[in-house]
Specification:
Number of strands: 23
Oligomer: single chain
Distance between the termini: 60 Å
InterPro entries: RND_pump_MFP (IPR006143)
GO molecular function: efflux transmembrane transporter activity
Family: Belongs to the membrane fusion protein (MFP) (TC 8.A.1) family.
Radius of gyration: 41 Å
Largest sheet: 9 strands, mixed
Protein name: Efflux RND transporter periplasmic adaptor subunit
Structural class: alpha+beta
Keywords: Coiled coil, Signal
Order of helices and strands: HEEEEEEEHHEEEEEHEEEEEEEEEEE
Shape: elongated
């Protein structure tokens, strides 16, 4: 019986200690903190972007004829590689015909030159009139003009013959085939699509009002499937239509990162929404948003929570710029602020005890 009494006394004492400990924890809520920092940063707006090739074309032959061969989609070709062939027979015949005509014209010119020399001798002997010399010289000039025209026609025919073999203007991959072998094609009809998959860039559209801020930025942040990085700005086109009210920006993908992206891939671009300015910076999780108010809690030297009203001046990623009565280095509550009251005592836990797993991850 004595043993049972001692057991119940011990059990009662343990329960009392547990309740006391629980009450103490309730009286002093636990929080995690990070220091307030003051930095010169620019607020950003997140917009969508797309990876595009710097070289993408729909290629045509430039001549009419029957398509005898065309590359399959997915075929990789080097610059100058053959992509399609148009029946060259009619163009070969045209070249041969003009070559024959040019040869015949050269014979006529040589004969006329010899006739002119004979007439010149006769004219020196006063056997013929000057009119006959003038007529012969005019005939020679006409023949030489005809020769020039034939030469131009021959060059055009040779160029057409060359076009019957469609070659890649740059190294790339065939993305689509718009015509098939055996079909009659026109010179302007697209035959296939070719895309350079080695030289890429990112195009994005941002609010037109932010175009000047973006143009002044040397680099912007890009978030993609493999993480995030900073990329240099290639150009900004601050022109929009009445409906979209957006500008176009182009980012240069560094050579050492080309392999991390694919044509058509969607990314997120942080577009500068204002000029860089000095602001207090706190984690987004530190904000306590009420009815029409936004505040943060800072912890003073006595471990008391002090509410500070702030206004948001933009942000980037997990952090926001705020304006309020803060000081650089103050401890701002990141976890546990939602239930705090002004002046309440708190227990500050270390990051090991209360890890901030989402900040900066």
């Amino acid at each position: 019986m004595c043993v049972n009494n001692r057991f119940f006394q011990a059990l009662f004492l343990s329960a009392t200690l547990a309740l006391t400990s629980f009450s103490a924890l309730q009286a002093n809520p636990v929080v995690s903190v990070v220091p307030v920092s003051k930095e010169v940063i620019s607020p950003t707006a997140m917009v969508s972007g797309q990876v595009q090739s710097r070289h993408a074309s729909e290629l045509s032959a430039g001549v009419n004829g029957k398509l005898v061969w065309i590359a399959e989609p997915g075929t990789a070709v080097a610059e100058g590689g053959v992509l399609a062939e148009v029946d060259a027979r009619p163009y070969e015949l045209a070249v041969r015909q003009l070559e024959a005509q040019l040869k015949r014209k050269n014979i006529e010119i040589e004969r006329t030159k010899r006739d002119l020399e004979r007439l010149s001798d006769l004219y020196q002997k006063q056997a013929i009139s000057a009119r006959e010399i003038d007529n012969m010289q005019a005939d020679l000039a006409l023949l030489q003009s005809d020769e020039e025209l034939l030469q131009l026609q021959l060059e055009q025919a040779q160029d057409d013959l060359k076009k019957t073999t469609v070659r890649a203007p740059f190294a790339g991959v065939v993305t689509e085939r718009l015509q098939r072998a055996g079909e009659d094609v026109t010179g302007t009809a697209p035959l296939l699509g070719l895309v350079d998959v080695e030289h890429l860039e990112i195009r994005f559209h941002g609010p037109l009002a932010y175009s000047d801020f973006t143009r002044q930025a040397a680099q912007v942040s890009v978030y993609y499937s493999g993480g995030d990085t900073r990329m240099p700005l290639r150009t900004v086109i601050p022109v929009s239509d009445a409906r979209s009210q957006t500008f176009t920006g182009v980012l240069k993908i560094p050579a050492d990162m080309q392999g991390a992206f694919r044509v058509g891939e969607l990314v997120t671009v942080a577009v500068p929404a204002a000029l860089p300015a000095e602001h207090f910076v706190v984690p987004r999780d530190a904000l306590v948003i009420g009815k029409g108010t936004t505040s943060v809690y800072v912890i003073d030297s006595e471990n008391k929570a002090q509410e500070v009203k702030v206004s948001i001046a933009g942000g980037s990623g997990d952090y926001v710029n705020v304006v309020g009565k803060l000081q650089n280095g103050q401890r701002v509550v990141v976890r546990g602020a939602d239930t705090l009251r002004h002046g309440q005592m708190v227990k500050v836990l270390s990051t090991r005890e209360f890890p901030l797993t989402t900040i900066g991850s």
